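REQUEST FORM: STRUCTURE PREDICTION
Request ID: SP-0412
Submitted by: Lab K.M.
Chain count: 1
Length (residues): 234
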Amino acid sequence: MLELDQLSASYGKAMALESISLRVMPGELVAVLGPNGAGKSTLLKAISRAIDAQGGLTFEGHSLHNVATEKVVGLGICHCPEGRRLFPELSVLKNLQLGAYLRTDKAAVAADLNKVYQLFPILQERGNQMVSTLSGGQQQMVAIGRALMGAPKLLLLDEPSVGIAHRLKMEIFSAIRHIRDSGVAILMAEQDAQSALQIADRAYILEHGHVAHEGLAADLAKDDHVRQIYLGLA
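STATUS: Completed
RESULT:
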């Protein structure tokens, strides 16, 4: 579905991604792990065309180069960014509806809104509440729900668990697994490597803008080097 071949990106003279090769198959949950500054967020921004990049970047066999960001959404790639980027003074419902701004299929939009409410029941209860009054975990649910309202084939999730209480983090990871099981492919950048490897099919570990390790999530979780360096486990 998604293929990156020797993809590189920079901010001015500072190289942020260097020769990244990566793929996501249909219906697959792929984790991108690594410390702050490894290039995880830059990678997702390059895919959604929020920043320019050089190298191979194709989605369903078609190049994404020279495709505007809003057109990328129309192709079926929806990006849930780090920091959520919600409209804090609008209601939960309005934020969710904004995720479907490109869509004209009203019945399907209504059905997808119901699916979001099934995934995160608290959002239906708080539908008329301003987003700024929600907890961090609930705001993250709104951000994921808003991305789902774009009817993605591929969902890009950037640090979905950062700054969230443990109980809500587990709810969100459970929801992410459910989204994958529904047939949506997911590429998830995440610092909590241990939790991510528990739900991912495969994973890539970034260091200083390049891929240091890759493989099946179950294998990486058992790899002694990965456990010591990235999971903090002996």
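NOTES: The chain is about 40% helix and 25% strand.
Reviewed by: T.R.
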